[in-house]
């Protein structure tokens, strides 16, 4: 396939309906600019008149180099003319370059929800699209619940989309609004629709309620649609929308489509995915196709050996094409090839005896409960300590944590943590006490306070995630000998992330081990000298 396909991103409108997501104006501006840079054709900015954030965004929209900003809204209300509808007015008077209007296409909704004559619904679509075309120059129609409507009453659903087409809609978007349609149905129905509306004017908007949104979108493209809608990271209501992070590389690399995103810009996809997560303060989905940290991760020794010979054995594309990278996981399942590949990745060379000792050490540690497949920084420190490259930055002589639950001055129950630490740095001892919103936060605060004079680089790192797992006791144990594994993810001022691990029968002790590695990794990477 070589004919042009157009990409429509609806992260800022449909994606904003995700539970727990609340975009600020600054968020919208940053995301819109990033989408524009990638090469997206249409960016749906929101619904003018619906809320103050969208009003502010459209009042002063960002400058876009190539993308068209789209304002979303509804067709006119029953019994009103399009020119006098107060809901349409802010959409058509906005500074957006195009309008996308949603309207019913399922007779069930028209009969039960709107309680109007079906002919009136068709007229609402026709009038609204005609006015949008006149005012904005570029009008689109989102046919809500189109596939349910088509299966229930084909003639009425087709009347709705042909009315929009005849009224001048550049795009008629077929929506699988509840995500319940399967790919074979999508392809068959879209093929039938192309007999009434040219595929060059059809789009697809798929929800992911059956985990088929991307597959449904690709099926619709095969059937002839030439606009595809989706959101970054599959953001959206309920189970989300079609994930544009998977759609773009599948369309370009798998189907050979020209969708305005050059192969050079494909390399920005992983960064765009992370940008959204950063703006929302969410942890990235490690297992997301194409752009996730684990998308090209290899754990089993057999796989790693094969990948070392030819990556095509277990990688469907070169990860660099989408800005990602191969990741060799070290674990108790690892063979020699895993360790060698990981050492090559971090630039560490070990002679045969040291290499053998490191592999045995990894397996011993994981038998105790460590997991290096999710704690690459701790593995790198382990390897570099084998070479004597990591200094002893400080010695934690002792620590104490006290948790207190009490009523505050206004009678509310509060729980406070207080940590006391004693460290030795360059032969000098220091004791610090700090409060925190939990024992780990209190320890982190006290340790930094004790170390900041010697190691100012620690000021710019932040702990962003903390996970605890209770490991099952040994088979012949009493049930009280279980150990605790703590993993801590950290981030520096440049956005680099690293994960460290600690294991102990005591959760605080395990946390301190992971904290120590987090500090050591930061200091080693910053080139700090040891004590």
From TrEMBL:
Pfam families: HCS_D2 (PF22617), HMGL-like (PF00682), LeuA_dimer (PF08502). This is Citramalate synthase. Its EC number is 2.3.3.21. It catalyses: pyruvate + acetyl-CoA + H2O = (3R)-citramalate + CoA + H(+). InterPro entries: 2-isopropylmalate_synth_dimer (IPR013709), AIPM/Hcit_synth_CS (IPR002034), Aldolase_TIM (IPR013785), Citramal_synthase (IPR005675), LeuA/HCS_post-cat (IPR054691), LeuA_allosteric_dom_sf (IPR036230), PYR_CT (IPR000891). GO terms for biological process: isoleucine biosynthetic process; L-leucine biosynthetic process. GO terms for molecular function: (R)-citramalate synthase activity; 2-isopropylmalate synthase activity. Residues 5-267 form the Pyruvate carboxyltransferase domain. CDD domains: DRE_TIM_LeuA3. Pathway: Amino-acid biosynthesis; L-isoleucine biosynthesis; 2-oxobutanoate from pyruvate: step 1/3. The gene is cimA. Belongs to the alpha-IPM synthase/homocitrate synthase family. It comes from Marivibrio halodurans. Keywords: Acyltransferase, Amino-acid biosynthesis, Branched-chain amino acid biosynthesis, Isoleucine biosynthesis, Transferase. The keyword Transferase applies.
